[in-house]
Amino acid sequence: METELFIGGKWVPSSTGDRFDVKDPATGDVIATVADGSEADATAAVDAAAEAGKAWAATAPRVRGEALRKAWELMTERAGELAKLISLENGKALVDAKGEVTYAAEFFRWFAEEAVRGAGDFATAPSGANRILVTRQPVGVCVLVTPWNFPAAMATRKIGPALAAGCTVVLKPASDTPLTALAMAAILAEAGVPSGVVNVLPSRSSGKVVGKMLKDPRVRKLSFTGSTEVGRILLAQAADNVINTSMELGGNAPFLVFADADLDAAIDGAMIAKMRNGGEACTAANRFYVESSIAPAFSEKLAERMSALRVGPGTDENTQVGPLVNEDTVGKVDSLVKEALSGGATAATGGSRPDGPGYYYPPTVLTGVAPDAPILREEIFGPVAPIVTFTDEAEAVRLANDTEFGLVAYVYTTDLARGLRVSEAIEAGMVGLNRGLVSDPAAPFGGVKQSGIGREGGHEGLLEYLESKYIAVNW
Length: 475
Ligand code: ADP
Prior knowledge:
single chain, 475 residues, alpha/beta, Aldehyde Dehydrogenase, Chain A, domain 1, Aldehyde Dehydrogenase, Chain A, domain 2, 2 domains, seven-stranded mixed β-sheet, globular, binds adenosine-5'-diphosphate
């Protein structure tokens, strides 16, 4: 297990000598102490990234792609041990952690293939007077800031396209889950990525070290995944040096079930959309809107499936739902549920925090939730499904859009025309139509409204790390 900073291809202690604890969410016990990156370390990491930048940008795209491909192979070979590490520091069930390793590794494979597709353009100007030549160049040094909910995949989703494009990076992982990010750095180094191209800087002082890097004129790109609240702060800081930004922020996904839906498929989809990662995903279904005629049957079946889930330590093979990541997260879930219950909702299953150690919360289904309940406005980030009924399509769309967020929505109906009509009307960057899982390295992931700016994955994910350069040519 690596626990030092990774700067310029070396494992180094913090310049201050400080370290911080990483805890097992199942017990609250300390599992490792990690070097606590300082502002001076942040500058050293940017130095390393800037120094490595020219040579990496000039490295053949195929060679850059091959290093990413090798990293995919190494991650796949070591999937078991990486999953254990993720589960240990994040708490998620091993089954979810294994899924994450596959998903995370696929970003390396996808962007290994995309590395050779940074093509430009060549055209005759409409006047015929000259030619228009467009070439694409790497943005430059990138600061990548990732959250704790997918410690591997959020890192690879940013590192993959950055490296494919010819950029060098400093990754600041969430302080709850730095171990997986350090393991990614080791794998990339082993895969042949040169020193300084990838630097990883765990730090408890996120605001300070990220702020320091955003002030550095050599940094040209910020890619952030996390809360809208922190995203706003970082966007303001990025404005000072007019830094290129990609922001993956909060979500408040509606899950719409029309009376003509295949009910069993909708329940299967709901279980994935709600319970993947124990509900700790920005794509998690946050609000269930069910047409009133089928609402009792839907609620009953969902409660039955939710109550059958096995809750326990993530590292136990039999566990389906692990603990939440920390006390703040479980405390927030608990208070949102309490508020909903006191506002008139009923718990069809779950609904109260168990006694004992660990940050556990039981799978919960709430019915009769008041339309203005805070649980429908805030990102729950836990295993709780609030159900609200609707009577017609217009109302369903209105309720779905009644939020400042716009990341993803889920729609269940067997009427294809309705499915497409509603998908177009919903204000979201992504829609799962009769599908509870949208994340795919080959597709553009991202949100509208206050859920973010830019897309990750797909071909668009590569373009976020490239600048177009237009050369007007006379001959
Ligand atoms: P979450 O807790 O849902 O992951 P956050 O937005 O709190 O979302 O954190 C996402 C990432 O941003 C983490 O790496 C965290 O350490 C970092 N972070 C939090 N606050 C700040 C800040 N003020 N400036 C820079 N980075 C921050």
